[in-house]
């Protein structure tokens, strides 16, 4: 079944744990943690201290999206903060193979993502080495943007390649996803959905339950 990874970027940071507490009693298994450096993307979010503090209070799988240049420099810090999977950008790494290897050497799952303008054919050769490929369906940097329709074709290309080659790689989509458009990305073949404003900007528990209702219907 498809899983939801709600982006805490849309939480109220004046009391982050209060929003996370509202997710309890749902089917949720992971949360999405967007780290931005103000250089790779034109926004700054939060860093290791925040991740570590919420790690102490939440058992979820920590699905982390690093929108930072040269993430290789910070891999140990992500690990020490309690990150379970670290997704890095194709465009942000001087030595991508070495960065992926170092994530795995630090006992985290490795995810790879790419900006909407990046040619998907550059990503395909790395699928054998990674645990997750993330299709960005908005320009990385901000929540609340509109879903880019050409992401559907990218998901289909990745789904076909992964299935044809029997690879053990999950496909995640992130940006502009709502309960009203989620079905089309599921139909295209995603395994995981990131949603920020549509979860933490609304009635949190109600929205998570709505997503899981849709996922269950789709898996019948
Ligand atoms: O990585 C990003 C933005 O860079 C996303 O995770 C957004 O935070 C998703 O927010 P919505 O588009 O769902 O509001």
Order of helices and strands: EHEHEHEHEEHEHEHH
Low-confidence stretches: none
Mean pLDDT: 98
Strand tally, please? 8
Helix content: 25-40%
List the ligand species.
5-O-phosphono-D-xylulose
Structural class computed from helices and strand pairing? alpha/beta
Distance between the termini: 9 Å
Shape, per Cα inertia axes: globular
Strands of the widest sheet, in order across it, are: 1-8-7-6-5-4-3-2
Tell me the major beta sheet: 8 strands, parallel
Structure in words:
This is Ribulose-phosphate 3-epimerase. Keywords: Carbohydrate metabolism, Hydrolase, Isomerase, Metal-binding. The active site is at residues 34, 174. The mean pLDDT is 98. This protein has 8 helices and 8 strands. Helix 2 links the parallel strand 2 and strand 3. The protein is of the alpha/beta class and 220 residues long. Strands 1-8-7-6-5-4-3-2 form an 8-stranded parallel β-sheet. Bound molecules: 5-O-phosphono-D-xylulose. The site of 5-O-phosphono-D-xylulose has 22 residues, from strand 2, strand 8 and helix 7. 5-O-phosphono-D-xylulose binds at residues 7, 9-10, 32, 34, 65, 138, 140-145, 174-177, 194-198.
């Amino acid at each position: 079944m498809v899983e939801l990874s709600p982006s805490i970027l849309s939480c109220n940071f004046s009391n982050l744990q209060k929003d996370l507490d509202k997710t309890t009693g749902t089917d949720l298994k992971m949360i999405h943690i967007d780290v931005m450096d103000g250089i790779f993307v034109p926004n700054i979010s939060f860093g290791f201290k925040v991740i570590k503090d919420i790690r102490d209070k939440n058992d979820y799988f920590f699905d982390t999206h690093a929108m930072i240049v040269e993430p290789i420099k910070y891999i140990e810090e992500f690990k020490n903060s309690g990150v379970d999977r670290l997704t890095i950008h194709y465009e942000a790494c001087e030595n991508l193979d070495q960065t992926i290897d170092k994530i795995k050497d630090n006992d985290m799952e490795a995810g790879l993502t790419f900006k909407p303008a990046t040619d998907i054919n550059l990503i395909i050769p790395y699928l054998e080495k990674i645990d997750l490929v993330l299709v960005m369906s908005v320009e990385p940097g901000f929540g609340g943007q509109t879903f880019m329709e050409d992401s559907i074709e990218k998901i289909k290309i990745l789904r076909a390649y992964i299935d044809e080659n029997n690879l053990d790689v999950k496909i995640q989509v992130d940006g502009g996803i709502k309960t009203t458009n989620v079905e089309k990305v599921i139909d295209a073949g995603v395994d995981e959905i990131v949603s920020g404003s549509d979860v933490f900007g609304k009635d949190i528990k109600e929205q998570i339950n709505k997503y899981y209702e849709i996922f269950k219907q789709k898996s019948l």
